[in-house]
TrEMBL record, chains A, B:
UniProt cross-references to Pfam families, sorted A to Z: Beta-AFase-like_GH127_cat (PF07944), Glyco_hydro127C (PF20737), Glyco_hydro127M (PF20736)
Native species: Jiangella rhizosphaerae
Residue ranges that the Swiss-Prot or TrEMBL entry lists as coiled coil: none
GO biological process, one term: carbohydrate metabolic process
PANTHER family assigned to the protein according to its UniProt record, in alphabetical order: DUF1680 DOMAIN PROTEIN (AFU_ORTHOLOGUE AFUA_1G08910)
SUPFAM superfamilies assigned: Six-hairpin glycosidases
UniProt GO MF annotations: hydrolase activity
The name this protein goes by in its record: Glycoside hydrolase family 127 protein
Length: 641, 641
């Protein structure tokens, strides 16, 4: 089929639009971030990251690859990893959301140019990939384990969906539809019974079904989800668990294998479950999410604790110093949490999204939006080699953000997340509106019965715990304004009603139902004092250590705040002593610096350090680490013995 | 040159024969193990492992590769990894020591057969490798980073040296000499300025110099050591530190990069230092050894804490659950310790060798000598997939020993170590004999002045702490009989002199100088009670946990000793309560089993487990783990809070 205006979304565009579910998402015309913590990041993304990513994709040849296909020189000239097409698509998706959000002319022009280059590379039957299927290259679909062809379509289709929903005119939407039709024709019930080593096409196809109403896209997504887990793909060095092909999706106990793959697959499974009414599948993903959060998630919300295969570790295997916690896994986790929140209305999913956004997604980019962490370790012992400004960087080996990577999914995943972030803040249901994330923003929508409803949200969060919701649009009948109270705010949160009445509220949802007048204010006051947390005692890697949190932020210590020559590994803290503010979001802890004398043999009856010297230890928000130059860093701090 | 009878070694053969040094090694005719812990392993090695390894090398095609070269079909038919030749050579070395030790006719026949097959594959100019240099293969030396050609020569030369020193007649000795001459001609001062990504040829060439007196072999070894560390090899994904090419050998702070490579290189550097009088180089390796032992060594003596690149981790990075602790790294560590002991006489090197032998080398093989651990983790959370008996196994993913691996250096490295183990027990100096490792053994040699000296060593060690040295050969003038007192025996060791006088002795060396008579006994009594140790507080991964030791043995808990359905991760112990013997080398600790209830979110103000139930915890020798069927296991046990 061909995309037409009827597929456009008058909400301004939403990444995920389930046809059913407990909550309804709002679009970029309905929720706009106006400033603050996230507004700053949206601006940096729009003014720096989009252009930065585009210029790197040109420089490393990923865009020329499409022209190389057209000109018959792909077998010789193609550059980059086999999945580099997907990053061009992810960047177009980011630009599409940016155009939808602000009408950005430069992004629109880039979409136009890129779309034309890509369109020419598509084969008449819809096949589109620069790494396979041309002279001097491998056959189409000859390497489903590693070839990433269907993965690339997934990102192409997501870009197409963003263009359609965002009302951005581009031939790429039709390219995406042709590719989707080609996939259905090739991998349908009577076709190739394989699927991609890297999931993402599942959720892309469901969203395309939601945009177009074409059932075959949903059916194909369901086929891909159901085919997985029966040992169809080859048994690679990392084992089939790497790409979740060793156990069917609905039978797994927890997310496992390559973290980004696992989370994209789970998100696609939720989409399929919601659209097909498969409650068993939805419950399976919820159960896996619970187990993963309880046993396989870092205090930052980060996921993935194995470098070798970028994978989830075993239960309670969460070494801070080998945390992989890939930026893309955090993006995928937020996407999954959002789907589960919409389906169930359970704000525990928004709790995890908040933690992940503030402590992984916000950690990855530098303040200027032109360099990034690919992995988000919780402990860096050595500064390591510094990334060169002028070349691609390996993924996991520096204490300094790098401008680009040989695998550069993260910068583009961040770009599309920041550009569309407003769509993840607020939802609607039959009774009113629900605030899930706090930000300076304006909200303007209609309730299920068509009545207008809107409010302005003002907050200095996360620096301050007060969030004010001021009603800007309403109607005579009552409706409900709800706000999430984070699980970390278990003690002392207060909801102030328009009447001025103060009501203690616990974690979960706090609501006011009223016949609101314009100007009415609902205020949430969160108790924002720094606190220590300890891990479940089964987390071996941080036994005897504590981490500090401040509101939604995880804190860390950096070597730049220590006496010269001392390193973060010398830090010991006394969690019985109070944490005190030290300005600019920093906090002071009472502790000590350990001695640095070697033992001949490091194992002995007495493990204590008798020569530690008392010290005040400065802690800063984890997301800001490495912004003051190369530094070592750690989140989990050993308790002074 | 050609090997002749003049190169034979009338000691019965020794792996390492420095021309100078504080101590002199003894050969397989001078020290014979007669039973006990190590005698049993030597017998299993001789009667099972040698044949097992040979049959697997036939089965997986590594031996046929040599015929494939001769028959011009190597480009098409060659099987196995690029370094598989080296494993055939290591097995021949093991068989050579076995023939030297016992005259084993079957091993001699196998050497004969293999040598003929290999000899035919050598090119006229001495080049010999089945993976390069033939039609359909890469050019000779076109991939020094990964090609392993010089590494294979290293093992070929070590096999040749073993044949020459062991007095085993084989054409392979000449093959090795021709290969060494080819290496000197190709990589000498005016030739190819490269070196091998995997060290080992350095120590092989020095030993060949020691056998033949040909100085050019030593010079070539020195060239290889000196060339390293200047960024000559390509910058691979793991970085040049992987193969120690980022910093010159003498400038490094500690052993780093791939552990086996690092340790083989250090051993070769010691050999070069000793033969060239390069005290600075020797001191550098000693300093690196000290730093590595203090900061980068597991309580088992195991080395290597990174799976991804089989490498040493950063200082104090010693996660028990991701311990790589490759069997071959332990063999290499013992080889290095032995060289440093001979050079310096410092028994701390023998201390580490003992720990490594009992807790890594003895751990790897199954009791029947037909399956092996490639990695020797200190914590196994899940049993994982069980290795199939009939195919090669990946290296690091099971709680059960596997019969063979795609990379099978470990089974062959064990075989050559066990076959030659007697040569690592006792040394001589101008004043007498020194016992470094305890075993049932007979020793018969001559002192530096030619006087006969010998003794019988009897012990049930490590089950019992008494070691009796009964003089069997002596002469009228006094000489000195010394015995190492391990560092772990700091409290209560006693030396009983022939007179019956009892003398408390501390860690280090205990000696008796006397005009011994045949039948005189020197007795060492070591205090063999189980004990808890804690790690240096900088070892993050085992903070708040203790490990139990018993004599030289590290202990562990296995799930087979826990109530049904409970896992080793539930174990908590009280190190203030006494450890009590429980028969068969097992020990009982006082502790508890933790509750197994998940938290919604695993990080909270209180990290304690209020629902743990008291329990007695059974600990067994780590080297014996997984011998009672699949089990989970851990060495470091969390302290009950």
């Amino acid at each position: 089929m061909t995309a037409d205006a009827g597929t456009r979304d008058d909400t301004g565009g939403r990444p995920v639009v389930p046809s059913t579910g407990r909550l309804r998402p709002l679009g970029l015309r309905e929720v706009r971030i106006t400033g603050g913590f996230w507004g700053h990041r949206q601006t940096v993304n729009a003014t720096a990251t989009l252009e930065h990513n585009l210029s790197w994709e040109r420089r490393v040849g990923w865009i020329d690859n499409f022209a190389a296909v057209v000109e018959g020189r792909a077998g010789r000239d193609r550059r980059g990893r086999e999945f580099s097409d997907s990053d061009v698509y992810k960047l177009i998706e980011a630009m599409a959301w940016e155009v939808a959000r602000t009408g950005d002319a430069s992004a629109a022009a880039s979409i136009d140019e890129l779309s034309k280059v890509i369109e020419r590379a598509q084969e008449p039957d819809g096949y589109l990939n620069t790494a396979f299927g041309h002279p001097g290259q491998g056959e189409r679909y000859s390497d489903l384990e590693w070839g990433h062809e269907l993965y690339c379509y997934g990102h192409l289709i997501q870009a197409g969906v963003a263009l359609l929903r965002g009302g951005v005119d581009s031939p790429l939407a039709d390219v995406a539809l042709r590719a989707a039709d080609h996939v259905c024709a090739t991998f349908g019930p009577g076709g190739n019974q394989g699927f991609c080593g890297h999931p993402v096409i599942e959720m892309a196809l469901v969203e395309l079904y939601r945009v177009t109403g074409e059932r075959r896209y949903l059916d194909q997504a369901k086929l891909f989800v159901d085919r997985r887990g029966h040992g169809t793909l080859a048994d690679i060095e990392f084992g089939r668990a790497y790409f979740q092909d060793e156990v069917p999706v609905r039978e797994a106990d927890a997310f496992h294998g390559h973290a980004v793959r696992a989370l994209y697959l789970a998100a696609g499974a939720v989409d399929v479950a919601v659209e097909t009414g498969d409650d068993e599948l939805l419950a399976a993903i919820e159960r896996q999410w619970e187990a993963t959060v309880a046993r396989r998630t870092y205090v930052t919300g980060g996921m993935g604790s194995r470098h070798m295969d970028e994978a989830f570790g075993e239960d309670y295997f969460l070494p801070p110093d080998r945390a992989y916690s890939e930026t893309c896994a955090a993006v995928a986790s937020v996407q999954l949490s959002w789907r589960l929140l919409l389906a169930t209305g359970d704000v525990r999913y928004a709790d995890l999204a908040e933690r992940t956004l503030y402590n992984v997604v916000a950690t990855s980019p530098a303040d200027d939006g032109r360099s990034f962490f690919y992995v988000n370790t919780l402990h860096r012992r050595h500064v390591g080699p510094l990334p060169a400004a002028d070349r691609e960087h390996p993924r996991a080996e520096s204490a300094v953000r790098a401008p680009w990577f040989d695998v550069s999914c993260c910068p583009n995943n961040l770009a599309r997340t920041f550009a569309s972030l407003a769509a993840y803040l607020v939802t609607a249901d039959d009774d009113g509106l629900q605030v899930h994330q706090y930000a300076d923003a304006v909200v303007s929508t209609r309730l299920a019965d068509g009545r207008p409803a809107g409010f302005e949200m003002r907050t200095a969060y996360p620096s301050d715990g007060t969030v004010v919701l001021r009603v800007t649009e309403t109607s005579p009948a009552p409706w409900t304004l709800s706000v999430r109270v984070p699980a970390w705010a278990a003690d002392g949160a207060v909801l102030v009603e328009p009447s001025g009445a103060r009501r203690p509220v616990g974690p979960g949802v706090a609501s006011v139902t009223a016949a609101f007048a314009v100007g009415d204010e609902v205020r949430l006051e969160l108790p924002l004092h720094p606190r220590w947390v300890r891990a479940d005692p089964r987390v071996d890697a941080v036994r005897g250590a504590v981490a500090a949190e401040h509101g939604p932020l995880v804190l860390c210590v950096e070597s730049v705040d220590l006496p010269a020559g001392r390193d973060v590994d010398a830090v010991r803290v006394d969690p019985a002593a109070p944490l005190t503010p030290d300005g600019d979001g920093a906090v002071l802890a009472v502790g000590a610096l350990a001695s640095d004398v070697d033992r001949d043999w490091p194992y002995a009856a007495d493990g204590r350090d008798a020569a530690a010297t008392p010290a005040r230890i400065r802690l800063v928000p984890y997301h800001s680490w490495a912004s003051r130059g190369p530094s070592t860093m750690r989140v989990w701090l050993p308790v002074l013995e």
